[in-house]
Design goal:
Layout: H1 2-9, H2 11-24, H3 34-91, H4 95-169, H5 172-200, H6 203-228, H7 232-236
Helix pairs in contact: 1-2, 2-3, 3-4
Length: about 240
């Protein structure tokens, strides 16, 4: 279908018609989605085909140039050959043969400028066509890179859209609020438990234990003080 439209309307007009058809179906290129990527791929394929045709045309030009150059070189060789034949015939005293050979040499000599001009013109055409082909190939490579970047960007856009849909479908903010409330409840209970443990402890028992610990610490300090003035020998006895 698409190829038929391109054949009837031309490539540029055909692509416009196909784009309009997509728009009528509610999938315009400007949406930047899969349709845009598909249209870009289609355009890239058309560019590749055009570059291939240009490459074939340049190859034909090169072939024509090589044939014209070869013909010119052959005629130049024939000119030198007939001039040599005319000189040899003249030296041999064969005037008629010398005249015939020189006549052919002159005819070729008159043809050579025209052949040379054709070769030079063909050379210019080939050089210009090669330059154009190189530029188009470079542009094509750039478009290929842009195509890959476009695909990557389209994938990222799809991923972001999927994330947005998830965020819209599930209220993550509500879940976050519930989590914070549960966390605060657990921490509050921990504080209440610590306070309750402290309140449940008997102050009198704690005071007695503290006094016993103080007395023990004093006794340990006293005995260590006594050891400072005693020698190791006295300790042994």
């Amino acid at each position: 279908m698409k190829n038929a439209i391109y054949w009837l309307m031309g490539e540029k007009a055909g692509r416009t018609i196909v784009g309009t058809w997509n728009w009528l179906w509610g999938i315009p290129v400007e949406s930047g989605g899969k349709v845009a990527v598909a249209v870009a791929e289609e355009s890239l394929q058309s560019m590749q085909e055009s570059v291939q045709k240009l490459s074939e045309a340049v190859a034909m030009q090169v072939g024509s140039y090589e044939r014209a150059k070869k013909k010119y070189e052959q005629k130049a060789q024939e000119l030198r050959k007939f001039e040599q034949q005319a000189a040899l015939a003249q030296q041999a005293g064969n005037g008629e043969a010398a005249r015939l050979a020189m006549t052919k040499a002159i005819q070729i000599e008159q043809l050579l400028p025209q052949l040379e001009a054709q070769v030079q013109q063909a050379e210019k055409f080939v050089a210009a066509s090669k330059d154009k082909l190189n530029r188009e190939r470079l542009k094509l490579e750039q478009y290929k890179t842009d195509m890959q970047n476009m695909k990557d960007l389209a994938e990222i856009n799809s991923a972001l859209e999927a994330i947005a849909r998830v965020n819209n479908e599930f209220d993550i903010g509500s879940a976050r609020s519930s989590f914070e409330a549960a966390k605060n409840a657990v921490e509050g209970r921990h504080l209440r438990s610590n306070a309750l443990a402290e309140m449940s402890e008997n102050p009198t028992e704690k005071l007695a234990a503290d006094l016993e610990q103080i007395a023990l610490d004093d006794e340990v300090a006293r005995r260590l003080q006594m050891l400072q003035g005693t020698t190791p020998k006295e300790l042994a006895e």
